[in-house]
Design a protein that fits this description.
The chain is α+β, with helices and mostly antiparallel strands. Helices cover 25% and strands 26% of the residues. The N and C termini lie far apart (47 Å). The structure holds fe (ii) ion.
């Protein structure tokens, strides 16, 4: 029961965070978005209505989560004039940490030291995902939806998440930690807690942490079962 309550509370806190989202200013980047970022956020909010059921999972701790999630959550921030508070979502995530199935990313990535360093120091845990079992015959996430994916990511300090892309349209929100984000026409802008970035189809993105870990929520609002691809050496 405690697991159920923690997961429902996390889902509600995530929905509330999406509802209070303000897209990050993109500047004169020439991206010419077909769909405005505000519309993507509204689309994401509506998709919470497609969340169907709760199926608690066996906990799957990972070293990077055990080491960095709770220290990162301490860096969640109160509201500013421009950005919403992230403290409630950070608190809900810490409470539900052991109810999520944490995973390493990119299991098919090439074996080389820089990639291994990234994969050892980054993890994601899904809260809402498709119903199909994966190769371990486990559900992907405690809640199911055929139309959206919602999860959380933890990235250790002093680490580059290399440039990557996917067909899925993605909302990426900073819960805690100040990191630089790759942007096609900007010089790695700093994105503080409360920032939300919208990545359209195949738009390259990357994140670089410094002395703080980075804790985020991430939501795919189209093609929730599609893969992501690393673009190394760009
Ligand atoms: Fe992404």
């Amino acid at each position: 029961m405690a697991t159920d309550l923690a997961l429902w509370a996390l889902l509600e806190a995530a929905k509330d965070q999406v509802a209070r989202s303000v897209p990050a200013p993109d500047g004169p980047d020439g991206l010419d978005r077909v769909v405005p970022a505000e519309e993507r956020i509204a689309q994401a909010l509506q998709l919470f209505d497609t969340v169907e059921s709760l199926q608690p999972l066996e906990p799957t701790p990972l070293p990077v989560v055990e080491e960095w999630l709770e220290p990162a959550a301490q860096l969640a921030a109160p509201a500013t004039d421009e950005l919403p508070s992230t403290t409630d979502l950070a608190t809900a995530l810490v409470a539900a940490k052991d109810c999520l199935r944490w995973s390493r990313a990119y299991p098919d990535a090439p074996k080389r030291p820089d990639v291994d360093e990234f994969l050892d120091n980054y993890a994601y845990g899904l809260l809402v995902a498709a119903r199909e079992p994966d190769t371990d015959n486990q559900p992907y996430a405690p809640f199911t939806s055929e139309q959206m994916m919602l999860g959380f990511t933890i990235q250790a300090p002093n680490l580059l998440y290399p440039r990557h892309s996917h067909i899925a349209v993605e909302l990426y929100g900073v819960i805690a930690g100040n990191a630089n984000w790759y942007h096609p026409a900007m010089d790695w802008p700093l994105r503080p807690p409360g920032s939300v970035m919208v990545h359209e189809e195949f738009q390259h993105h990357a994140m670089r942490t410094h002395d703080e870990p980075l804790l985020c929520w991430v939501m795919w609002v189209t093609e929730p079962n599609s893969p992501a691809e690393l673009h190394l050496d760009i």
